[in-house]
C-alpha cells in the first residue's frame, strides 16, 4: 500500500491454515455473524492452487501424493464449511446483518465481504418481494408494510459458548445470572477453558484473545 494505510497479511502456510481453522470454529460456534476474513480466504485459495500445481508435478504412485491430496481435501472442507456457515447466518439474520454493516463506523472492519453484502441485499429484496406478492397484498392497506428488523429474530448474544483462552485476560466483567446477584470480574488464564455468556467475551473473540470450541 503506497499510502501506508494497511499492512499486507504475511503468514506461513501452517499459520494460514491455523488462521482459517480458528475463523471457522469461531464462526461455527458464535451466535452472530463475525467479521469477514477476505484476506485469509484469498490466501487459502492461492495456497490450494499452489498445492494442486505441486501435485501435478509429483511422480505417480508416490505415497506423498496421497497424503497431500488428503490435506488438500481437508482444507477445502474447512473453507467450504466456513463460507457455508456464514451464508446460513446471513440468510437467518439478514436485516440485522445489513443494519449492523450500515452502522459500522468508518475504519471499522466489515462484517461482510463485497460478495456477501451483494447476496444479503438481494436476499432481502427477494424476501420483501415474496412477502408482498404472497401475503401482504391480500391484507388491508394499513397492514401492507412489514418491518423486517422486528419480524426476523436477532442473534441470541446471551447464549453460552465454550472457549479456550489464547491470551491471558484480566478483570473481565461478568453479568449476574439473577437479579439478586451483582456484577463481578474474573481473570482468564492462558490455556484455560470456560463456559460463558457470549456477549461477555465477544470482543475477545474479535481480537483473537480467545478461541470458541
Automatic annotation (TrEMBL):
Boundaries of every DNA replication complex GINS protein SLD5 C-terminal domain copy: 155-213
Name of the molecule in the record: DNA replication complex GINS protein SLD5
Primary location: nucleus
Subcellular locations according to the entry: Chromosome; Nucleus
Taxonomic lineage of the native organism: Eukaryota, Metazoa, Chordata, Craniata, Vertebrata
Keyword Nucleus: yes
Keyword Nucleus attributed: yes
Segments forming domain GINS subunit: 63-134
Any one Gene Ontology BP term: double-strand break repair via break-induced replication
Transmembrane regions: none
Keywords: Chromosome, DNA replication, Nucleus
Gene Ontology cellular component annotations, sorted alphabetically: GINS complex
Family recorded in the similarity comment: Belongs to the GINS4/SLD5 family.
Alphabetical list of Gene3D superfamilies matching this protein: 1.20.58.1030, 3.40.5.60
Amino acid at each position: 500500500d503506497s499510502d501506508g494505510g494497511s499492512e499486507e497479511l504475511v503468514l506461513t502456510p501452517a499459520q494460514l491454515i491455523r488462521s482459517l481453522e480458528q475463523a471457522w470454529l469461531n464462526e461455527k460456534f458464535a451466535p452472530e455473524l463475525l467479521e469477514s476474513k477476505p484476506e485469509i480466504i484469498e490466501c487459502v485459495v492461492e495456497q490450494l492452487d499452489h498445492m494442486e500445481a505441486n501435485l501435478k508435478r509429483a511422480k505417480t504412485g508416490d505415497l506423498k501424493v496421497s497424503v497431500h491430496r488428503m490435506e488438500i481435501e481437508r482444507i477445502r472442507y474447512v473453507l467450504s464449511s466456513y463460507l457455508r456457515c456464514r451464508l446460513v447466518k446471513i440468510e437467518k439474520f439478514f436485516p440485522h446483518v445489513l443494519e449492523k454493516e450500515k452502522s459500522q463506523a468508518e475504519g471499522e472492519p466489515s462484517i461482510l465481504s463485497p460478495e456477501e453484502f451483494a447476496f444479503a441485499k438481494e436476499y432481502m429484496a427477494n424476501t420483501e418481494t415474496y412477502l408482498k406478492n404472497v401475503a401482504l397484498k391480500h391484507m388491508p392497506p394499513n397492514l401492507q408494510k412489514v418491518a423486517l428488523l422486528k419480524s426476523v429474530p436477532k442473534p441470541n448474544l446471551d447464549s453460552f459458548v465454550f472457549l479456550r483462552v489464547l491470551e491471558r485476560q484480566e478483570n473481565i466483567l461478568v453479568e449476574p445470572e439473577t437479579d439478586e446477584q451483582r456484577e463481578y470480574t474474573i481473570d482468564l488464564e492462558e490455556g484455560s477453558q470456560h463456559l460463558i455468556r457470549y456477549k461477555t467475551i465477544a470482543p475477545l473473540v474479535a481480537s483473537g484473545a480467545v478461541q470458541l470450541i
